[in-house]
Amino acid sequence: MTALFALATSLLWGMADFGGGLLTRRMPALTVVVASQTIAAVVLGAVVVATGGWSEAGPQLWFAVAAGLVGPVAMLAFYKALALGPMGVVSPLGSLGVAVPVGVGLVLGERPGLLQFAGIAVAVVGVLLAGGPQLKGAPVQRQAVLLTLLAAFGFGAVMSLIAEASSSLTGLFLALFVQRVTNVAAGGTALYVSVKRGARALPEGGFPWGLLPALAFVGLADVAANGTYSIAAQHGPVTVAAVLASLYPVVTAVAARGILSERLRGVQAAGAGLALVGTVLLATG
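Above: the chain sequence. Below: its structure as tokens.
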């Protein structure tokens, strides 16, 4: 069950990242984050009311609040890093966030078997290579590297925090709702400050209502990914769940190849293959 839900997480996160990347070509990145998360918060609010999730309120929701605060910071740092440095450098570095939940799992006493340790190593290398790292000829600003590492730490922290925010399905709905409301509050505040400083919140023609379904997909896919990861982490080793969930860059690269006809570089194809091998080792270990 852990492997199944973790792989579902990587699929959902990969498609959400792909959709979000396309939307940022039409709208400011911060607006995409706020709009998509607002839609997700409305849907989750309805689910919480329908399932009676309010009864699960407790101190563990502070983990969801923390995840909601860290998430937008990590996303904005990542987008800024992409603007400053080559994607072939930034994308693989952003995947290093998997070290956070894996480290937490090891500190808590998890000890994967030999095959699983091998699978972790192979899968992490595969994810890094799937981003198509530019090893030479690509000048990188120090600020881009620092921002990417900040984003990676934030993404990993969100994975660890959301896994601790609930212990039941209805509680998970409530935790995800609280996380999204916090996301919207933090992102909305950042957007307001950005506009006050002269940045645009919307494209020239106003809000692109035709993109609403795409925004909804991105927001809801991200929510679903957080939910499946939480279930995966609660039903098996966090070290395994985190690594399998972190295969999403492979999904994004494959989606770009299939939908946008972007050609995979040799290093990306090799990385995808290694990630698959690592997945098999983790699932069978």
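The chain has a mean pLDDT of 81.
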